[in-house]
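Hello Y.,

Per our agreement to keep a running log of every chain we model this quarter, I'm adding this entry. I've kept the format consistent with earlier entries: sequence first, then predicted structure.
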Amino acid sequence: MERYLALIVDDEPDILELLEMTLARMDIDCKSAADLASAYDLLEQHSFDLCLTDMRLPDGDGIDLVRHMQQHYARIPVAVITAHGNMELAITALKAGAFDFVSKPVDLTVLRNLVNTALKLSHKTAAGTTSRQSESTSKSNDLNIDSEQKLLGQSEIMTKTRATIKKLARSQAPIYISGESGSGKELVARLIHEQGPRSEQTFVPVNCGAIPQDLMESEFFGHKKGSFTGAVADKEGLFQAADGGTLFLDEVAELPLPMQVKLLRAIQEKSVRPVGGQQELAINVRVLSATHKDLAKLVSDGEFRQDLFYRINVIELSVPSLRQRADDIPMLAEHILQKLGEDSGSLVKLGDDALSSLQQYPFPGNVRELENILERAMTLCDSDTIHADDLHLPELAAQEKTDTATTNTAPTASTAVDPELPLEDYLGNIEKDAIMQALEKTRYNKTAAAKLLGITFRALRYKLKKLDLE
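Predicted structure for the entry above:
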């Protein structure tokens, strides 16, 4: 079996020897260079599967090599070796296209994890998932209507988004996925995971706003038996569960400041310490994060740590809202109705008037709101065709005018006292209206809606189920 070949670029003999010995034990052959000029010559002479380069070289720095390889040898993953604590240079290298980084003194466990992940990417490329092949099959993939795996839409902005996802999947840089609630941020995170070298490992999504504050450290890092009341056994945390794979931190803005400090350390040091534990455990996790909030504003307001913001926001990927791609609504609606029909056993179609109304509606809740509207219309319509009247689209303009006036007024007509209505039903209607208004104001973000209502996230989930609003 043909062995992998790695290029090592460093002018320190001790580091070169350490890297060569470590890779040799992994059955990887090496070619070494002490400067950029020698590295460029070797790249022309050999076909490498991986490159490791120091940041400080006699005739330049590692970022110069990263940029050169991005331009001429983009298929080869290149990782940089940085001085301990110099995260600024590491982040600059990641933005330039580096696959990953490792800090001095080199932790051999971290190095082996990095190399194995890089070789999976190299193997994927060599096995046929090259960018050229991806481009040749992208059209058929884009038309695949499995929403669990594909990001639907043929609009120009969605085509660009899918191309960006494919490019980002090759890197190990932390990605910050921004976008409105319901726009598909978790789906984008899953696609980055599935198209990258970690696809065979676990994808662990976590809603940061749904974890009780006093349990956060245990949930993220795990705990040892007896470390606190109720810790009757050792438990692994989310980082350990995602080891080798991807951890997706949804609604990362909801993390309290003390937890942000601990999260920053875990990401930078690539290790975690369970609650009650004495030793740190090395972790090999790619971190993706998302929120519908403006993180930059939260940083300026002192509600989110600036150092953590720069660490998770190495590369930002903005997910377009449904308003930006109204041309995709017919395809999305057809797919949603087909899926709902398969689940319920009754197929319905969308009338031209309904489709026209949907394309004119601004969709504050994006694709999630489209799904809710179509599910409700499918349930309530009297025929096998959904018409505009069946959609019951909110009149947003009228709602905005009356929002302020109705905030502190008596119940609306829909919740007015009905002498023939049982008290429990009457109160249920008031509660239902309040929840729906909160969801609409927060663009169907349950965490934000729970805060607006002054209840916990779990309480809101219970009420949604109890009132048949899910």
